[in-house]
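Reminder to self: tokens first, then the designed residues, so the page reads top to bottom the way the pipeline ran.
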């Protein structure tokens, strides 16, 4: 499906238009109002048990019920409502303290939902849940279950947005009742639609198993009536390099480097080598360093020379106090200068 041009344009412009707003992160009036109401509710919780010893004398009960809706309690709630650095909260409280007081003292009984009365009805900063936009119109699919419960209504609960649905994963359509490719409808009646993911082997399907595919996903092939995994590693020309091994997985495969001691391998580690690199040999099924120094055939040819094994190789060194000549290690002449005549000029260079 090709998206219509205006949508493409909108997507391109969106980041540009949003940048200035992102920079200062100023909350919308509705968000500020919602936060204020949340804090007010917390204040009510925090003061609920105040001035109440926990005993249950008649006197205490009477005092409590008086305190419950008292101005004293309101002041206690308002006093601690906004953090000292919360500019938006303090500004809103300053501007609308009287309304909060009126609600607390007189209107609470008739309008028990503070958010609804304060943010929606009185200040008109927000809309009721399930409605959107300047006039608080019903979201797509109705205010009770916007977007069939399968998506988010744009502007839901705010004075913004256009009421359209942004569907959750797996759903599409104006009311988020249709299933996208890779999902099938597992329930559909007048009010509800539920889309469930296909088996991973299906591109599209009518049910949950690999026998319910309409079309196989890439890396899977239809055999009999089911989509089965393709073993890419078993292909006539294997897909990995010679220094790698191939691992088949559902719907795909991967290549991984052989152990450094292998020439070709069938899996991870030195036990899976096909052949070993020079200086290594298979020992107990594993490529192992050859100790050239302990071979019957002498590795170091000069007379008196020491042999040291190294990974994959060996070195031949004359003992301390000896130096190498073509076919033997000979005692170094100590008297008459420590170095030989050929190295003398380099000393003068210094
Ligand atoms: C539709 O399905 C849902 C979910 O199973 C169920 O709760 C609801 O009662 C059904 N509605 C009708 C009209 O059958
Ligand atoms: C591979 O696919 C088959 C068939 O869809 C499935 O039964 C199996 O559990 C899958 N294996 C893994 C490791 O995901």
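Designed residues (350 positions):
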């Amino acid at each position: 499906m090709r998206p219509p041009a205006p949508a493409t344009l909108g997507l391109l412009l969106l980041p540009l238009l949003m940048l200035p707003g992102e920079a200062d992160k100023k909350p919308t009036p509705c968000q500020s109002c919602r936060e204020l109401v949340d804090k007010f509710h917390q204040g009510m919780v925090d003061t609920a048990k105040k001035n109440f010893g926990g005993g249950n004398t008649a006197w205490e009960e009477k005092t409590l019920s008086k305190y419950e809706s008292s101005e004293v309690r309101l002041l206690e709630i308002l006093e601690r409502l906004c953090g000292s650095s919360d500019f938006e909260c303090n500004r809103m409280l300053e501007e609308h303290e009287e309304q909060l007081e009126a609600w607390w003292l007189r209107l609470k009984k008739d309008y028990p939902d503070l958010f609804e009365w304060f943010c929606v009805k009185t200040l008109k900063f927000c809309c009721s849940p399930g409605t959107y936009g300047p006039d608080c119109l019903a979201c797509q699919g109705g205010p009770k279950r916007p977007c069939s419960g399968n998506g988010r209504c744009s502007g839901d609960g705010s004075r913004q947005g256009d009421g359209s649905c942004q569907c959750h994963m797996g759903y599409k359509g104006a009311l988020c009742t249709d299933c996208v490719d890779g999902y099938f409808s597992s329930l559909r009646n007048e009010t509800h639609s539920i889309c469930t993911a296909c088996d991973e082997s299906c591109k599209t399907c009518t049910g949950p198993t690999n026998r319910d595919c309409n079309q196989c996903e890439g890396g899977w092939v239809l055999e009999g009536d089911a989509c089965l995994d393709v073993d890419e590693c078993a292909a006539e020309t294997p897909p990995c390099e010679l220094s790698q091994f191939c691992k088949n997985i559902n719907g795909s495969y991967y290549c991984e480097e052989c152990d450094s001691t292998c020439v070709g391998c069938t899996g991870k580690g030195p036990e899976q080598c096909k052949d070993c690199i020079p200086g290594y040999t298979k020992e107990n099924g594993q490529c192992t360093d050859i100790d050239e120094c302990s071979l019957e055939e002498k590795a170091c040819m000069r007379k008196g020379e020491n042999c040291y094994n190294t990974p994959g190789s060996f070195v031949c060194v004359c003992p301390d106090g000896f130096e190498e000549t073509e076919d033997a290690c000979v005692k170094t002449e100590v008297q008459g200068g420590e170095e030989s005549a050929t190295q003398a000029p380099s000393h003068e260079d210094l």
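Residues 244-290 form one domain.
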